[in-house]
Design brief:
Blueprint lengths: L1 H34 L17 H43 L5 H47 L1
Helix pairs in contact: 2-3
């Protein structure tokens, strides 16, 4: 009985020692990373000035280009949702008798889904435009702040 109790205690001590060693190693690696960080970016801050007009123009162009791509993706997604809703309504209508309650309900649901897809598309495009405009205003404000 005693050897079982001792083995259990020894196992617990080994587990605590392993955990403590692991934590100390993690702290050492984090500490070492703080002292050996790459400071070469601070050597010439004028070369990488964010507010330069060229960088600002590139950021605005990228924001416009990405907003256009995002809007196209939103349109494609809305078209796929509408197409799926229409296809499902047609499948339900074909599997049931023409003019049945389930067929009419499926067509009504498809129309609702298509309407909501249009509404969601408009809202999402508006949010993309707002985000793009906010980015462009921010870049303009930064350029103005450093230009004066």
């Amino acid at each position: 009985m005693k050897s079982n109790y001792v083995a259990k205690q020894l196992s617990t001590v080994k587990r605590w020692m392993a955990t403590a060693l692991f934590c100390m190693l993690a702290i050492a690696f984090v500490w070492q990373g703080a002292f050996f960080s790459n400071t070469s970016a601070m050597a010439d801050p004028a070369a990488t000035l964010i507010a330069s007009s060229d960088a600002g123009d590139r950021a605005q162009e990228k924001a416009s280009r990405d907003a256009g791509r995002t809007k196209n993706f939103i349109e494609d997604t809305a078209d796929k949702v509408k197409q799926a809703a229409k296809s499902n309504a047609n499948k339900v209508d074909q599997s049931t008798d023409n003019g049945s309650f389930i067929g009419r309900k499926a067509k009504k649901d498809a129309a609702t889904i298509q309407k909501r897809a249009d509404e969601d598309t408009a809202r999402t495009k508006n949010a993309v435009d707002n985000t793009k405009n906010a980015v462009e205003r921010t870049v303009d404000n930064i350029k103005d702040a450093f230009g004066k």
